[in-house]
Amino acid sequence: MENHGPYLVAALYHFARFADYEAFRAPLLAKAEENGIKGTLLLAAEGINGTIAGTPEGIANVLAFIRARPEFAALEHKESHASKMPFYRMKVRLKKEIVTMGVEAIDPLKTVGTYVDPKDWNDLISDPDTIVIDTRNDYETAIGTFKGAVDPHTKTFREFPRWVAENKGLHNKPKVAMYCTGGIRCEKASAYMKEQGFEEVYHLKGGILKYLEEVPEEESLWDGACFVFDERVSVTHGLKEGEHELCHACRQPITPEDKLSPLFEEGVSCPHCHDQYSEADRQRFRERQHQIVLAKARGERHIGA
């Protein structure tokens, strides 16, 4: 893949039996900081998940440290690049789940759908016997999705089980194919679907990121950009940085066209959220934005940015 910036970004996750995950937090954080790495890693009894960024050497050192654990020896990661550091600090958090669905006993190590490589994904989702489901949240699907995919319009991944229960028509086709950003949500969702009695369940290996990396744009069935959880906001084919930014009032991705709207005010409102806030709210946001601009002029980062 062509290098599109000096910072290497590594997205990773791995489901594993990891009983002593709490003890791994401090040494992992120390190793990341020692190598100048920033980002967020989540640790739980079910494994590890997160995205980190830094120099190629620093990323390699941290990944080697993680893979030295027998639980994570087979850990895979996805690489992309960023023109500037996409994170502000390094965090290692302890969680109940590495991706929160909120359903007890869903275990991808016990029951899970079938992985589908990006090169085979087009054939699967073009099959009329397949229903294609986007397992991401509404603000992610709003800027890009696979053609013909069903959008659950969920606000959080916790809502996915209820959406499945309320949509009995999902059983009308024999095959269910699911996808998400990096693969972790659709892997857990596939385990849930199997538990619910769906027999032919598939999920995109490596997620949208791997698809955009490996499938040529002229052959792609992806439409739009892919939301990412860092300061790049979105990536496109070839994992090039997209044109989206975040509205710092509502945290929704916005396009250059959105910024031309009379409802857009930097750090205060955008077309997505202008009607959600009172004038008092917007005045508070204006003061925050003013402080952010002043901090930037001093070469600092305001804590509220």
Automatic annotation (TrEMBL):
<keyword id="KW-0819">tRNA processing</keyword>
<keyword id="KW-0560">Oxidoreductase</keyword>
<comment type="similarity">
    <text>Belongs to the TrhO family.</text>
</comment>
<dbReference type="InterPro" id="IPR020936">
    <property type="entry name" value="TrhO"/>
</dbReference>
<dbReference type="InterPro" id="IPR040503">
    <property type="entry name" value="TRHO_N"/>
</dbReference>
<feature type="domain" description="Rhodanese">
    <location>
        <begin position="126"/>
        <end position="220"/>
    </location>
</feature>
<dbReference type="InterPro" id="IPR001763">
    <property type="entry name" value="Rhodanese-like_dom"/>
</dbReference>
<dbReference type="GO" id="GO:0016705">
    <property type="term" value="F:oxidoreductase activity, acting on paired donors, with incorporation or reduction of molecular oxygen"/>
</dbReference>
<dbReference type="Pfam" id="PF17773">
    <property type="entry name" value="UPF0176_N"/>
</dbReference>
<dbReference type="Pfam" id="PF00581">
    <property type="entry name" value="Rhodanese"/>
</dbReference>
<protein>
    <recommendedName>
        <fullName>tRNA uridine(34) hydroxylase</fullName>
        <ecNumber>1.14.-.-</ecNumber>
    </recommendedName>
</protein>
<dbReference type="InterPro" id="IPR036873">
    <property type="entry name" value="Rhodanese-like_dom_sf"/>
</dbReference>
<comment type="function">
    <text>Catalyzes oxygen-dependent 5-hydroxyuridine (ho5U) modification at position 34 in tRNAs.</text>
</comment>
<dbReference type="GO" id="GO:0006400">
    <property type="term" value="P:tRNA modification"/>
</dbReference>
